[in-house]
Write a structure and sequence with these properties.
By secondary structure, the chain is an alpha+beta fold. It has a single domain, classed as Arc Repressor Mutant, subunit A (Orthogonal Bundle), CATH 1.10.10. About 50% of the residues lie in helices and about 20% in strands. Strand 2 and strand 3 form a beta hairpin. Helix 1 crosses helix 2 and helix 2 crosses helix 3.
Length: about 70
Amino acid sequence: MSRKQRIKRTLKQADSPLSTNQIANRVGLNWHAVDDELQEMHEQGAVDRRKLSNRLTLWWDGEIEL
């Protein structure tokens, strides 16, 4: 399973939006690798995000309405 698939699965299984760090911990990758993948996935419309501050971004599956 690719990194993107693991991240997408993690977001689909989550009950609420997750931070980059939470996703990294759940998929077993470092924060920078997950952030790079999430940025690309966001540009493709696969995930949504909300930046709460320079240090905190929440992510969720793009198929779910919040």
